[in-house]
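Why do we care about 3D structure at all? Because function follows from shape, and shape follows, mostly, from sequence. That is the central idea of this module. The next example makes it concrete: a single protein chain, its amino acid sequence, and then its structure expressed as tokens.
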Amino acid sequence: MNEQTTRSAESSPQIARQIAPLKFGVGQPVSRKEDPILLTGQGRYTDDLSMPGQAWAAVLRAPVAHGRIVRLDTAAAGALPGVLAVYTAADMDAAGYKGFRCGLPLKSADGTPLFAPSRPLMATDRVRFVGEAVAMAVAESEAAALDALEAIELEIEPLPAATDPAAAMAEGAAALHDDCPGNVCLDWRYGDGAAAEKAFAAAAHIARVRLENGRLAVAPMEPRAALGLWDAEAGRYVLHAGCQGAFGLRAGLAAQLDVKPEQVRVLVGHVGGSFGMKAAAYPEYIMVLHAAKALGRPVKWRDARSDSFLSDLGGRATVIEGALALDSEGRFLAVRVHHLAAMGAWLSAMGPAMPSVNMQKNLPGPYATPVMDIRTTCVFTNTGPIGPYRGAGRPEANYVMERLIDQAVRETGHDPVAIRRRNLVAPEAIPYAAPSGLTYDSGDFGHLLEAGLARSDWDGFDGRRAESAARGLLRGRGMACYLEVTAPPGKEMGGIRFEADGRVSLVTGTLDYGQGHASAFAQVVGDRLGIPFELMDLVQGDSDQLITGGGTGGSRSIMASGKALLAAADRVEENGRALAAHVLEAAIADIVFEPEGLGGTSGNPGMGGFRIAGTDRFVGLMDLAAWLREAQAGGTALPEAVPDSLDAALADDSPPMAFPNGCHVCELEIDPETGTVRIDRYTAVDDFGTVINPMLAEGQVHGGIVQGIGQCLTERMVYDGEGQLLSGSFMDYALPRADLVPRFDIAFHPVPATSNPLGAKGCGEAGVSGSLPAVMNAVNDALASRGAGPVDMPATPERIWAALAGPRG
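And the structure:
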């Protein structure tokens, strides 16, 4: 297993030159197929679409975080020029639509099921967070629809609001839902409490931390938008919207509309980012479709950025209390976590799973910790619902584990490297049954640690710290050995279709919103079938062309779609062998498939095709497809045993969860006079199993690290005591900027997974899991050199300055 290495943008061209240019197969750093379209402004996003005769919708949102609706009068708004209709919850109820309900089969420790109230499309008797939809106006123009919102008479009697889970649980706090006293919807437990108690009692040392993962705005480049219409002739709804999977969104919409899935069609163009947030079916989509059917014309809606901060699913929003028990030599005996999680006013589809089940799966990381004990308390708060955000519980688990290790290092004097070496799962222990209930099938965790140390010049740190000190700056370093668990298995579509124009369509139920699927999937199929990379196109955003689809999320796309496409390729080969036997006038048993044939009559060396074994008689796969098209066009009848198509479309069982892992090292400087942080060096060595496309994988790592840096240093949604969002725009919500990010040193050490035919492990979210602890451990290492800290996320200049100015620990 050789290390695959890249150094930011410098080395990818060098790698490309080292690899034969005849074929873009697995392992080559091929550019994304969609880049020329996007870079020349030819991308087609939802807001780029318009239809003849379309109307415009605008949504009135609750201006208070909690209150009873005393009066809602839409008469004046409906009478304004150009206004076509104003809808409220009463209209949605009359139409018979279903509410949104979280269906997770989770139970509290006492056996009671998750309290999961049905969320209405619009607020009915009460509003529960600022930004909750109260009414929707539809007009001839967007301006007229917005004017109508101003004319709606809304009176709300305020109720006490709590945006913090501890405050929402406090005695006397107002209940958000009448049947949920104390606002606790789930009190979940996992692990061996008795064994943990015994381990902690016998421990030579116990490290403890209390960590905040503040609420984050997902803030994708493209805000949500929708264009809906009612196809009266077909008797079905059609929705254009950005999402993470057309098939999954169709199922969600059909459930809410209370119709059969085939009565809904979802069409997705380009998607400008999602990070988990656009996976859900949102109330606005149902409202738009309702208006389109009621008015008999297309209806378009687009969210303003200020409304996105209020109405999009938020990320994180948890407080974690962790404890790590160690023996006298620094071996981990047990880890204990209490996770307090704000759910928002309503439960999203995945909300309670992230701080519970995902914490369970990811908390052990790459360490041989024998016992763990987790308690998760999920609480309703007067904020918008929480949903998945890049990592969805995985970064939080790795973060608490690595912060506990560094806390133990500070308190015991153990070496931060030695203590990790001592506790990493050894190669000979794999397959390793972790206390999470999962079995790690592959990994070389110690090698990644050593590679991270070498590439980051760990031993040269003292000299760099002295040089920083000479300039009046504090230098800190932090490391993190992470392991995360990808999304669970499901069903995924694999489709390969030979088109009339000589091109080949790859059809899949995952959906690319920045990952580069078109290139990676083409590399997989090109390797298997020898179809030229440049002839393959990706079909993904039309639910009518899908037979199933799990969507993109949980770092599983290359495993799920890759496996499904390989299964489809097997069927193409099977069809092609029978057809080639007919064309070459041979028995099927004598036909062999060669992914790299002689090229056939097309004259393209390297194309896959079929040969009569032991002879030079050969027909290329693409030539065979052309022959079949011509034969069918000419009315040539084929024998009954000969397939009339090379195409394949199937639903495939996705592979089990995989375990991406790695070692990240961050070095940074802090100016003690201002509290500002400058990240100086960042090294990441990751094991993603087989790396299909190093360039794309590196880009995924870059993006994940940057989002981790943002959470560590700048990002947080802040509410006042009445539940009003104070950081509701890019003027006061600080996304990471280019000047905050250093040049990354990225390397790959692939240890192929045994759980899928590609050996892949996924890479989309790993950068966050590594960067959260690496960056914050570096911040607190710098502060500890002055006897200050630790500080929590976000480590803003104000917090750092206050820690340095305050009493020394």
